[in-house]
Amino acid sequence: MDRSKSLDASLTGADGSGWFPRRSFLKMAASGIAGGIFSGSLPAFAAKLIQMPFENGGRKLVRFPQKGEMILLRVRPPLLETPFEVFDQGVFTPNDQFFVRWHLSVIPNSIDVDTFRLRVDGHVRTPIEFKLKEILHRPDPVELAAVNQCSGNSRGFSSPRVPGGEWGNGAMGNALWTGVTLKSLLDRVGVLPGAVQVRFRGLDFGETPETPVFMKSLAIDHAMDGEVMVAYGMNGAQFPLLNGFPLRLIVPGWYSTYWVKMLSHIEVLDKPDESYWMHTAYLIPDTPGATMAPDAKGVRMVPINRMVPRSVITNLRNNSTLRHGVPTEVRGIAFGGDTGVKNVAFSADGGTSWQNAALGKDYGHYSFRRWKTSFVPKQPGTYKLMVNATNSNNLSQPASAGWNPGGFMRNVVEQVTVRTA
User: Which of 56, 88, 185, 354 maximizes the CB count within 10 A of its CB?
Assistant: First the structure.
């Protein structure tokens, strides 16, 4: 995927027809489509109950404004999980079923696009407040396919159990993001010598003054690498409000905690950020695989950062029934974490033997990648299907699940048990 292509020429619309020109975005934004959709608290319209495959896994399927059917973890602040069958529909996750995760409970229920400003200041030569139109009209738009995954995706499977949102495997999504590079904005304000980090803040805030402001930081070299983006488009459309309208930070290859939504403030720092969400929260063991024993003491902890490879089977569920002697297609998605997918291996016998699956189109090394294979269940009985992705750095998924107190970075080899009739 050529990230330097013109937005008007290369980004297909969300409905699959035509393009996503910036003037259309401006028209939509100015008309308030993404603003004023909530009257007070966020409504959730329950449809039915489902059971996730772990303890205390009862969940409601709900519909929030601008969102399709989602799995509800929490209303305030909203935590909405993508139903897993959505991942079998294609490489890109639909905007209306893209997972939602907010940290603070007070979220603007409307955005005035005329008065909205993105302030860039701190250790810079010329602080600037950018109007939304200024960002959309910049001559250097870029696009990038990238996975956005919550640090605690799959936390519900942690054993021993840990505090936090009990996600299944659906706190992730893949989108084609459109915007401008963070570097282009920092170049505009002029980063001064001695800068060490760049900090980001959105429009959400806590119920009480004591609630730590949600802010995340990147090292200056990372912020200036030309890949980190300030995005205004998602799969050929503007963001749903709950996914961060009007602007969102995109940090490809890193966990979603850094992808600040409703981005309103960028601050260049001349000393390390020791705020709560960098210094205290979202810490992982500084060990291989970020794993530790539940009773371990004195383990060095560091801020969570790069994602690791994952792969899942999307077209078969546990206890599915297959016909013995008949070829069965098995398919799914994989991603390499902070780099591309090298291969995906499939096993139909619980890991005793493996075969490489066929990989689908490569949309870039931060994107989901489709894979498929087939096998013939020759005898009646039970089959344990497994899938393991290896990324371009030759890092594969572990055979057994690691553990850490945050329930972060789970990427164990997934398995689905099927039966033959």
Answer: 185
pLDDT at 282: 98
Identify each DSSP E strand in 79-127 by its residue range. Answer: 79-81, 100-101, 117-122
Instruction: Let me know how long the chain is.
Output: 421
- Whose CA is closest to 93, among 74, 61, 60, 68? 68
Cβ–Cβ under 8 Å, residues 170 and 98:
no
Residue matched to tokens 């970020």: 290
Amino acid making up residue 155: R
Helices (H), 19-173: 22-30, 132-136
Question: Which residues lie closer than 8 Å to 269 by C-beta, 6 or more apart?
Answer: 122, 123, 195, 196, 197, 198, 199, 217
pLDDT averaged per 10 residues in sequence order, the chain, 421 residues? 31 36 51 43 66 92 96 95 97 98 95 96 98 94 98 97 97 98 98 98 96 98 98 97 98 98 98 97 97 97 98 96 95 98 98 98 98 95 97 98 98 96 84
- For residue 209, give the DSSP letter: T
Could you give the 3-state DSSP secondary structure of residue 370? strand
What is the identity of the amino acid at 354? Answer: W
Q: Are 183 and 138 in contact (CB under 8 A)?
A: no
Q: How far is CA 54 from CA 59, 159, 170, 293, in A?
A: 11, 10, 14, 21
User: In this predicted structure, what is the pLDDT of residue 40?
Assistant: 44
Phi, psi of 134 (to 5 degrees): -65, -40
pLDDT at 33: 39
**Amino acid identity, residue 298?**
G
Q: Which burial class, exposed, middle or buried, applies to 352 when counting CB atoms under 10 A from its CB (0-12, 13-18, 19+)?
A: exposed
Of the candidates 349, 353, 333, which has an alpha carbon nearest to the alpha carbon of residue 418? Answer: 349
Count other Cβ atoms within 10 Å, centred on residue 284.
22
Instruction: Give the predicted TM-score (pTM) of the model.
Output: 0.91
Closest CA to 22 of 246, 233, 250: 233
- Give the span between the Cα atoms of 65 and 47, in whole angstroms: 14
Fill in the DSSP letter of residue 16. S
Contacts of 248 (CB under 8 A, 6+ apart): 230, 231, 232, 234, 239, 259, 260, 261, 262, 263
DSSP state of 276: H
Q: What is the pLDDT of residue 421?
A: 84
